[in-house]
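Section 5.1 Outputs to date
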Amino acid sequence: MTTECLIEVSLTPQELQTFNTSFTAATFTYTEYKSQVVQALQKSFGQDAKPGERAVKIKANGTRRSSDVIVATEFRRYYSGLFGPLYVPGICFFTSTGTRIANYPKQHSANLTTKHQDTNQWFKPMVRILKNMRSKLAEDSVLPVGSAPSYFIEGLLYNVPNDKFGTSYGDTFVAAMNWILAADRTKFVTPSGQHYLARDGAPECWPCSNCNSFIDEIVKLWNNWS
């Protein structure tokens, strides 16, 4: 039995023909795979396991914390290389409405680790500060819950030049935010390097209005802090 590996191709016609000739269709599809995973979770957790738009949500019970289970499969983004087709390995899953969402967790993690090292360990603490500010704004009903996911906050700071980090948390926040406010944010990328950070209509991207609102509100929170 061959498990389905979903793909995205951006190849020349000749490369695409070679790919189609060598590619073997799966006998076990993503839809079947997801159905069996959901069944297994519901067998283990009963009514506490409920499929949502993106994840199977496991309800907290006793000492067990709530969790989201993403049913993902291998994903490959193919592109033309000097000596033939190459690909970037990742994962993907589908929402309840059939929208495909692709991610590249290994590249994301590796690039954030490099960013942290290249900023003399200032990157991760600054991410935590912005996440705490996000939580404060959500608690005060200034920002809608879920409008600024941690993944995108990491991506926002990832684009800030390394020389803006350092000296103190306050100095770093001011330098980073001033740079972000002056920059062309349409060119920002996610830490994986495979998507733009802020785009409308792209499921892997931060909606522009949410991104802009987050930036505006944390600047206001900083300026008005007493």
